[in-house]
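Ops channel
N.P.: pipeline sanity check, posting one input/output pair.
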């Protein structure tokens, strides 16, 4: 897969030493209303800079959220988010794709808040045909409350890649040959929300939300979508095979991206369901490829 642009040096390698093709340049500013609309608690969404930024607000009465206007089969979906600062225990900020059917497909970023001075946990998950329980958890290598950072999903027929600031943190490959379902025929909408989940989010529910710290605010900008828009009943995309994410260089990570992913695995991963023998005495079949990393 071609590398995304960026100047990040990680430990023993640096982008400047490798020349790689890149996907089309993403716009620096996309107004919220072009691609998204509120879904609930409209009065808990604050618009800034003419809609170039929005704040989601959580208080003891309600959280809030928004969703994409369109549904998509494959593409690249990116959001820049600044997380709730300070004591955010019990608070979850979510950015995810989900289909509408009961046996739904879903691709999740969930940011789990924590007590003051304790790091956020980023949890990712993939649902296929209604089955999830494929959690990965990592610490981030920066404070996500201090500034906006980019969180993106690349989804095509071959794999799903989760990116943080253009660094791949997880790959879920198409393992249909191993009997594992893969999202390919259910269009998904993109969602984001800020909500209270203190029954599970922080230390398994031991740390409760401190409502004296409310309201909790997460900020968003860069509402980028580059996907194949389809009706919710579509089984294929009419441009399938013709878009940049379908091309050969995006069917796998390149060597630099694999090194970056190993770096995340070695330094920042705190949970991988593939290694959890209490939940999975027999390794799930898709994990055979996961272990190749």
């Amino acid at each position: 897969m071609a590398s995304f642009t960026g100047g990040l040096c990680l430990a023993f390698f640096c982008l400047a030493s490798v020349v790689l093709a890149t996907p089309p340049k993403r716009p620096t500013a996309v107004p919220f209303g072009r691609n998204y609309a509120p879904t609930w608690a409209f009065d808990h969404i604050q618009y800034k800079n003419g809609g170039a930024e929005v704040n989601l607000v959580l208080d003891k009465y309600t959280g809030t959220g928004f969703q994409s206007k369109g549904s998509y089969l494959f593409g690249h979906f990116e959001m820049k988010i600044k997380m709730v600062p300070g004591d955010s225990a019990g608070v979850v900020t979510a950015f995810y794709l989900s289909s509408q059917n009961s046996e739904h497909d879903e691709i999740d970023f969930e940011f789990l808040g924590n007590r003051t001075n304790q790091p956020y946990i980023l949890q990712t998950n993939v649902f296929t045909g209604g089955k999830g329980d494929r959690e990965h958890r990592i610490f981030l290598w920066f404070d996500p409350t201090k500034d906006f950072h980019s969180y993106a999903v690349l989804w095509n027929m071959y794999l799903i890649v989760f990116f943080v600031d253009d660094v791949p943190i997880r790959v879920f490959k198409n393992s249909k040959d191993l009997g594992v379902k893969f999202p390919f025929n259910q269009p998904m909408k993109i969602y984001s929300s800020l909500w209270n989940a203190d029954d599970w989010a922080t230390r398994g529910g031991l740390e409760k939300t401190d409502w004296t710290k409310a309201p909790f605010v997460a900020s968003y900008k860069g509402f980028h979508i580059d996907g194949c828009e389809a009706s919710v009943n579509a089984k294929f995309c009419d441009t399938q095979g013709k878009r940049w994410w379908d091309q050969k260089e995006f069917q796998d990570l390149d060597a630099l991206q694999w090194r970056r992913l190993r770096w995340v695995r070695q330094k920042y991963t705190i949970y991988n369901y593939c290694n959890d023998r209490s939940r999975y005495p027999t390794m799930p079949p898709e994990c055979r490829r996961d272990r190749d990393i």
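N.P.: looks fine end to end. The first strand starts at residue 9 and ends at 10.
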